[in-house]
Amino acid sequence: MDILTIAPILRMLLKRDSHYPIIRWAADKSTQNSDSLNIPLPKNATVDDVIRVITKAVENVACEFKYVNVQDMGVFEVIYPSTISRRVSGKIVLVTGGAQGFGLEIARALVAQGAYIVLTDINIEQAHREASDLNDAYGKNSSLAVTMDVTNSTSVRQAIAATINYYGGLDVLISNAGVLKAESVKTQPEKDFDLVTAVNYKGYYLCVRAVAPVLALQHRVDETYMSDIIQINSKSGLQGSNRNFAYAGGKFGGIGLTQSFALELIEDGIKVNSVCPGNYFDGPLWSDPENGLFVQYLRTGKVPGAKTIEDVRRAYEQKVPMKRGCRAEDVMTAIYYLIEQCYETGQAIAVTGGQVMLH
Q: Which residues does the annotation mark as catalytic?
C-alpha cells in the first residue's frame, strides 16, 4: 500500500458538507500530533481492508482533526476548501498544456470559481510563473505547477503522482495540450506528422490511462462520487481541414477515443466528453508572430490572395456566422456544463460560433 492509494481513499472518506478535502502527505511532520487521527493498518492490507479500517476510524471520532497518522506510512495533512460556494469549489483539476493559450485561460477561470489547479506543461518555467500568480491571487494552495510531456508515459505518471502527493486526488482532467503543423500532404515531413499525432492523439490516451485508476478508486470508496475527463478537441475534429490533415486526423481520432473511453469508464463514475472550440484567434496557436497559424497559412498560401497576416485573419473571421473567433469564456460555458451535469457522456460539444453545425 502506498501514498497514491491511501490519499485518495482518505479524501473520499473525510468528505464534509459535500466537499472533499485536500489530503497532503506531510513528510516533515511528526507522527505524534495531539490533533491527529491515528489509523493502524493490518499487514499486507488490500484496498478493501484499507477502506474498511479508515471508514471505522473516521466513524468513531467525533472531534475535528488536522492530521491523519497512518501506521508505517506517515502523516497526512487535512485541508478543507473555503466555505464560499463557487461553481467548482474544492475540485482538483489538472490541465495539460496549462502554461499558455486556452489551457491557461481555462485554469484561470476555474481557480476563480474555487478549484485547485494543477498546471502541467513542458514549459515548466512558464507554468511556475503562472501558478505563482494564481497562488498570489487566490491563496497558497490554489495552484501547482508540474512538468508533463504528454507524449511520454513516464512523465505523465510522474505528474499524476505529484498531483496526488500535493492534493490527495483528482476530480477533473482537462486534456488540452496540443500542437499543430499545417502543410500540404504532398510535402509535410513525416516527423511533423508524428509530432502532431503523438501530442494530440496519443497524449490524450496516455493521460486518460494514468488518471483513470485514481478516479475509479475514488468512486469505489464513494459510489455517489463522479469525475470528469474533458478533452479540448477542435472544430477540426468535426470537419476536415485543408492543408491541416495531421491536426484534423488526430482530432477526429480524439473523438473516437472520447466515445470509447466513455463507454468503458462510466462504470467507474467517470464522464468523458470533448469540447470542440472554433478558432481562438487571440491565442498563441494562431497569433504567435513566428509560428502561429496566421503566419503558417500565409506562408503556405492556404488563403488565396492574402498578402498579410491581417488578410488571413479577416478571411477566417468571415467564415464564422458570429464574425469573431472563439474565446475562453465560450469554452468555459461548455466545460461548466459538462462538470455540473450528471447525465451526459461520450459527447463532442461544438463551440464554433455556428461555423460547424452538427446533424
A: 247
